[in-house]
Amino acid sequence: MAKGHSQGLTLALLGVALSGCPIDDAQVGEAGSSSSSGMTASSSSGSGGAGGIGGGGTGGAGGGSGGMGGGCPVEPGLPGSCDVAGCPACPTLVMFATGTQGGVTKRFQSKDGWTMETAVSEKSADPPAFVILPGQKAGVALLRSSEGVTKDRIRASTWTEAGGFGLVTNVGANVSTRATPGIAASSAAAHIVYQDVTNNRYWYAAYTPASGFAPTNEEVKVGVDTYSLGDAAAAITVLGMDPVITNDGWGDPNLYTQRRAAGVWEAATQHLAAFDVDDTTPAIAALTSTQGPELVLVFTRANDKQLVFLTREGGTWSTTPVEITGAKSTELTLLALPSGGALLAYREVATGNLHWARFDGVAFSAVENLALKAIGRPALALGAGDAEAELVYVDTTGKAHHARLQNGTFTTPVLVGGTNLVGVAIATNL
């Protein structure tokens, strides 16, 4: 029996239960239900672990960081490439953070630093997920509620450039999850994968700024009864306009990927039979280069927590996992870059320090230790104009910090704020 993709009768015999107004400076409140209607065709976030902690994935680059700005003498992504004479304005980096006593939202621009702090009243023991749809000036943040009648519900706050974050509302009717949902965006839609609280199955939802959430509860399955399930939250990315998920299987040591094309889930691809994949959430990114691989997938080996990777090129997956030397983690994230490569950031198992490496389409660079203590998975986003990438993480005191990748090196972190935070998600408004 395939771990992640089982027939309904077989699973039943195993005894698995089946389940059948915008604001910036005011507090982000809550309401009973979300909008739900319509969907058009189809960046990202998340983290996970055994028992349902975390959840998510990493999408494509979601657009570049701007052009030369009509004669700007400095290349995008470098200091001095925006908010100076002859160069374009720097875009905004937006943060959504969750915590056991509530969360916080803030925004960053290079000339102003971090501003517009807004409290989030909703409590969550899991990190959030957040994307901004490239070119749409709109996005959505998701969290798994940990309080009262909304416990385990997927709760959402929509975001617009003009109005900031809106009220926190339910996604659909009684849509619950055992881990933080994974989210990734194309310019048309935000794609969401989440895990049922009762039977470990994966479900799909989508969000568009025009139509809201629809669908909210589409099961990831092929045919009538070949469905997908796993030991941890799935990760998600968008390849072209198609969402692709990846997960460890349920009750076996395999790894799976699965694509939704033209609104229909294709059969899952099983990778690495007999390879002992860890029961945690992998990371996947859709690359932007027209040459080389279109997907890179990083996951954890169970026995020693070593990070390894596979690639897919021309529709064909590599078959031999390659170790990322010196990288051991169960809390990782990938960010696709406009240049065609990707960045990997992770929390190291033994020390809790943050590390990072760059993927060039063939291999990962030597891992660099940032010597920054963190809890949970770090968050990455494309640079807000004058940086190549942005890194935000929660330190061991529950506060958020921010570092920028400029000229190949991360800057000294600055305090963003927050109290008793458990996780952050960030996105750049490009």
Helix and strand arrangement:
Elements (H helix, E strand, L loop, with lengths): L4 E3 H6 L30 E2 L47 E7 L3 E7 L3 E8 L8 E5 L4 E7 L9 E7 L3 E2 L3 E2 L11 E4 L4 E6 L6 E7 L3 E2 L4 E2 L1 E2 L3 E3 L6 E5 L2 E7 L6 E7 L2 E2 L3 E3 L11 E4 L8 E6 L5 E8 L2 E2 L4 E15 L5 E7 L4 E7 L8 E6 L1 E8 L6 E6 L5 E7 L2 E2 L3 E4 L3 E8 L2
Antiparallel strand pairs: 1-17, 2-11, 3-4, 3-36, 4-5, 6-7, 7-8, 8-9, 8-10, 11-12, 12-13, 13-14, 13-15, 16-17, 18-19, 19-20, 20-21, 20-22, 23-24, 24-25, 25-26, 25-27, 27-28, 28-29, 29-30, 31-32, 32-33, 33-34, 33-35
Structure explained in plain terms:
By secondary structure, this protein is mainly beta. It has one helix spanning 8-13; strands at 5-7, 44-45, 93-99, 103-109, 113-120, 129-133, 138-144, 154-160, 164-165, 169-170, 182-185, 190-195, 202-208, 212-213, 218-219, 221-222, 226-228, 235-239, 242-248, 255-261, 264-265, 269-271, 283-286, 295-300, 306-313, 316-317, 322-336, 342-348, 353-359, 368-373, 375-382, 389-394, 400-406, 409-410, 414-417, 421-428. Strands 23, 24, 25, 26, 27, 28, 29 and 30 form an eight-stranded antiparallel beta sheet that branches. Strands 2, 11, 12, 13, 14 and 15 form a six-stranded antiparallel beta sheet that branches. Strands 6, 7, 8, 9 and 10 form a five-stranded antiparallel beta sheet that branches. The chain is globular, with a radius of gyration of 20 Å.
